[in-house]
Design a protein that fits this description.
This protein is α/β, with parallel strands linked by helices and 444 residues long. The chain has 14 helices and 20 strands. Bound molecules: flavin-adenine dinucleotide.
Length: 444
């Protein structure tokens, strides 16, 4: 059976942020939509997993996520799905507090609330602790230069190289730029793309100062993102099929056929919203998608490890979010203060590094020692759990060629963080890519 074009039915392969965003935008436009998700739950790389510990089920996010006030489309989509931003996020002015030992912080910077952007950050830099006066001035000069250049560079270079050309000292790189680069691009600063880093700075520091806020989820990721969006899609007539992997995508005379273990179904348009690491099987045989295939095959991936430590219930860290310096652990979150998971601490280790040579137990023990050094009087953790996302994000390197949402095959589109060329792998990039695919379908 081939569907007629008058009867448009869009298939979305993948129920992560990109697929959900495409579906939500399409049901708004009146399209019939079906999402196929291979796993038992939606959310993809931003999801909550149930983990068993001492016969108790615990809900943990696959990774601590940080959003920015500049995530305009993410916030709009959540609002549309009925999510009250003030309930689900802890909104903090941009701040970095790097700790090494418990005695004193190695570096701390807090953007101020009483000035517009980027002055809020510049004033924060001027007053920050842990840098010499000349280091503070060179960071401020660079920020002013970037603003003048509209956060654009003539040609892309590795971020570390760019920063050194702009007289940023080794300490500035270590305390300020490297933690920001890892948090924003999940790519080592020696190979990270300057252009993409500056795009994120631009959206963070141009416009409303609230754009530079950190938004820390107060709810688990699935309850905050995928569940409300899925409810919105279903309420508008969209269909969601979990546990349904698309094994084969074929081009038919007037549309596409999708093969699952249950059989074959036919659609007028298809949005492929799987991660680039999983796309080969779907597009490998499609001649018109060979260019996109070559681009994704050239991607390198970066891991993110999240190590959860459960401490006794009365354990509380001095702040919700702390950076660690001279340590394997990079960012530490007190999930008790953040989302009521009392005594639970999450530590992020981004990008490739020495930690990958350790077993999960060795990694957890090393980081537990680092936490003891950074926060005095920490009791022994009751348990720990390492969640290793080996291919968490594509490596956001210099001049990375990325596929576009529109493909050379009419009515076949690509959505996903990797297609939003302005950003590294982010929720916002994924959501914007889904919206773009919906616009392309509506205008075809
Ligand atoms: C640990 C970690 C921490 C992160 N931290 C942040 C952060 O702080 N801030 C931020 O903005 N971003 C962060 N990210 C990145 C962010 O999570 C991703 O950019 C975003 O979730 C990607 O969404 P996506 O829809 O493009 O892809 P995915 O989430 O990968 O979704 C693809 C979906 O397709 C499904 N699928 C695959 N193959 C098939 C098939 N054949 N048939 C049907 N379904 C299929 C998969 O199961 C998956 O659900 C983090 C990612 C990780 C892993």
């Amino acid at each position: 059976m081939i569907v007629s074009l008058a009867n448009k039915h869009v298939a979305i392969i993948g129920g992560g942020c990109a697929g959900l965003s495409a579906a939500a935008a399409l049901v708004d436009k009146g399209f019939q939509v079906t999402i196929f998700e291979s796993s038992p739950q939606l959310g993809g790389r931003a999801r909550t997993v149930a983990v068993e510990n001492n016969n108790l089920m615990q809900l943990l996010d696959n990774g601590q996520h940080i959003l920015l006030g500049a995530y305009r489309e993410t916030l709009a989509l959540l609002r549309k799905a009925g999510v009250d931003e003030t309930q689900v996020f802890l909104r903090l002015p941009l701040q970095i507090n790097m700790q090494f030992t418990s005695e004193k912080s190695a570096f701390s910077l807090k953007s101020v609330d009483f000035l517009p952007a980027p002055l809020n950050m510049l004033f924060g830099l001027l007053c920050c602790r842990g840098l010499s006066f000349s280091e503070r001035m060179s960071a401020i000069k660079l920020m002013l230069h970037l603003k003048k250049m509209h956060y654009q560079v003539a040609s892309d270079t590795p971020l570390a190289e760019f920063l050194m050309q702009h007289r940023q000292s080794a300490k500035l790189l270590k305390m300020l730029w490297e933690p920001l680069c890892l948090a924003a691009l999940n790519t080592p600063i020696e190979i990270a793309s300057t252009s993409i880093f500056l795009n994120i700075l631009r959206d963070t520091f141009m416009g409303n100062k609230r754009n530079s806020n950190f938004l820390l989820p107060r709810l688990d990721l699935s309850r905050m993102i995928s569940q409300p969006i899925a409810q919105y899609i279903q309420a508008k007539g969209g269909e969601i099929k979990l546990n349904t992997r698309i094994n084969k995508l074929k081009i038919e005379v007037n549309g596409f056929s999708l093969e699952t273990k249950e059989g074959t179904s036919y659609f007028s348009d298809v949005v492929i919203a799987v991660s680039p690491a999983r796309i080969d099987k779907l597009i490998g045989d499609i001649p018109t998608l060979q260019h996109a295939l070559q681009q994704t095959q050239a991607f390198v991936y970066q891991p993110i490890y999240t190590i959860y430590f459960q401490y006794p219930a009365d354990t509380k860290l001095p702040s919700v979010m702390t950076g660690l310096t001279n340590a394997l652990g990079q960012w530490v979150f007190d999930r008790g203060q953040l989302c009521g998971q009392i005594g639970l601490v999450a530590v992020i280790v981004s990008a490739k590094g020495k930690h990958q040579q350790l077993s999960q137990d060795e990694l957890a023990l090393t980081i537990a020692e680092e936490l003891n050094l950074a926060f005095s009087d920490l009791p022994k953790p009751l348990w720990y759990k390492v969640i290793a996302e080996k291919r968490a994000t594509f490596s956001c390197e210099v001049n990375l060629a990325r596929p576009t949402n529109r493909t050379a095959q009419p009515r076949l589109f690509l959505a996903g963080d990797y297609t939003y060329a302005d950003y590294s792998a982010t929720i916002e990039g994924a959501i914007r890519s889904g919206i773009k695919c919906a616009e392309l379908i509506a205008n075809t």
